[in-house]
Amino acid sequence: MAATLSAWLTAHPPHDQTYVDAPTVGPPEATPPCGLAELDVQTTGRRCDSEAQRWALGKIKNGLLPSVPVITILAAGAWLLWIAELGRYRNGTGILRRVHDRLRRLLGSSAKREPGTAPSG
């Protein structure tokens, strides 16, 4: 194999290719907005509170605020359904009235006692 490769390289010499050493590129000098060195407020005079609050508020703004209208609509819908059910309960119809009546039948006389009286037993 070596003889074959040597013969082929002799028959096909490489073109004039000059290689220039590429400059070494390291990672960029990145200074965190608030690193451990800045935590010493007496030495640096810099506090991380404002940067941390700005980051947290940005996360809340981007993550939570888009869902506020949906949460509001769902809460308003649940409130309206609850108000409607309470109205049906007062009229003697509705799911709450049926549950209340079934509980009274299951519990028997203890559910029919007068308000303000102590339970027997």
In short:
The chain is mainly alpha-helical and 121 residues long. Helices cover 55% and strands 0% of the residues.
Write up what this structure looks like.
This protein has helices spanning 2-11, 41-44, 49-63, 68-91, 95-107. With 121 residues, it is mostly helical. The longest helix is centred in the middle third of the chain and has 24 residues, at 68-91. 0% of the residues are buried.
List the helices and strands and how they pair.
Blueprint: H1 2-11, H2 41-44, H3 49-63, H4 68-91, H5 95-107
Tell me the span between the first and last alpha carbons: 103 Å
The description of the largest β-sheet is: none
List the total number of helices. 5
Order of helices and strands: HHHHH
Keywords:
121 residues; mainly alpha; 55% helix; elongated
